[in-house]
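[agent] plan:
  1. take the single chain provided in the ticket
  2. run structure prediction with default settings
  3. attach structure tokens to the ticket
  4. add a short note for the reviewer (M.T.)
[agent] executing step 1
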Amino acid sequence: MQGRFRRVLVVDDERFFREAIQETLTDAGLECLLAADGSEALEMSEEPSIGAVVLDVRLPGMDGIEVLRRLRELRPHLPVIMLSAHQDQTYVLDALRQGAADYLAKPLHEEELVLAVRRALDGHDHAATSDALRERLVLLQQAAARLVSIARGGESARGELYAALAQAAAEVVGAEKTSLMLLDETGSELRVVAATGRKLAPEQFEAVPVGEGVAGLALARSEPLLVTDLSEDARFAQRQTGERYASQSFAVAPIVAGDRALGVICATDASDGTPLRGEDLALLRVLAEQAASLLQVSQPVPVLGPGTSAPEATTLPLEASGGSEDGEIARAVCEAIVAEVEPVRVLSGALGAAGEGIGARCAALHLRAADGTELVCEGVWSGDETAERERLPLGRGLTGTVLETGRPVATDDPTTDPRFDPEVDTPASGEVGPFLCLPMRFRGVTLGVFRAFLAPPARTSPRMGEVLTAALSVTVRNVLLYRSLVESIEEVARARREARG
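[agent] step 2 finished; step 3 output follows
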């Protein structure tokens, strides 16, 4: 989603200003559309790629305030930056009351203009990402309920369940093409049993040996794979993928039930034309967990292919139900995120929604310190006055494992895991109990962790962990975005002070 809304609509009746703004923004790598009056602006604002509007207060006919009012009706979340002369302060206040995102005074300062527009575009991108994730979580809830209903039909509904799983992947991930592949009776090949967006019937697809191609490798390693560009991915440089894949971006999630590998769910060709992202893979993994609990197999098949070893994992018991509950928790987190902008309130709302939803005594977000030597607690929520550790060392305990591997850890008794470190993997009191730790990712990099100390007999699941990872990673993005905006504003202010001498 991020990056789709990168065009700027510039509205000014004076050609000189329109073209000067366009030149400044174009030099900064931003694409512009130009409008000379309000009617033209409203018509052009329907273009979905527009992510910000630079709008002059004074326009002939329909003035800028009226254009702003109508833009707010047509596209409520589209940020509008007002332009004004010094004598237009009354108009500016009216515009801000009606929801303008910012205003700039003429004559324009080029750097200030670029920073303001980039802030508006980034804010719109992130708001759109949060809204889209919330909508997809609703789809995930609906899909989980539908799949459970179909599965109650038993063996006679097997084909319908296969088709519903492939369709659910298409809806939740937003992919044009998906497939459900299950291991054959020998456990050596994956075969397509259902697909969407394909011309071939499932039985016409070639089987994929375990360990080959994207799907075969995901199953052999028993880990999900995200490929943003197949041609540039070093993991497949020496592998024969042939003409099997039409797209260069894939998400593949293995379906594993206990010690048995069942198959994979694959998604490619995002409907918005962009490469698949971490959020897409997280949602696909949640769906794969749901599939694992619904699919029944008569004989065990090996989880891993030849020459591979199982990755270590520590998880709480997977609850058969809970897909809808997990979606509700993640949706509550997203609601809390989009309701606020300032970092403290964003963190407080998101951590509170997550902590209450999973029955935590304490939930906290830790990010890497600026010098990269430790983790620093950025926000904490406590349900019973349990205190979190303010600073954590890198590379120690289950927390360090999550940070290094990017894989979640959940355990009802952390002392049974040899990686457990009581000086790291406990709250400030040192009390040992059920523990959940999730990686927080931003642009493909794990920047920190979310930790929750649960009150027995609270339970969580891998499914819940995946959904929370996606939702809480959005929190990290919003916090970092806000901080970067504040830093940009301070840089401009400092430059102005220095220029005045």
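[agent] step 4 note for reviewer: The CA atoms of residues 314 and 416 lie 10 Å apart.
[agent] ticket updated
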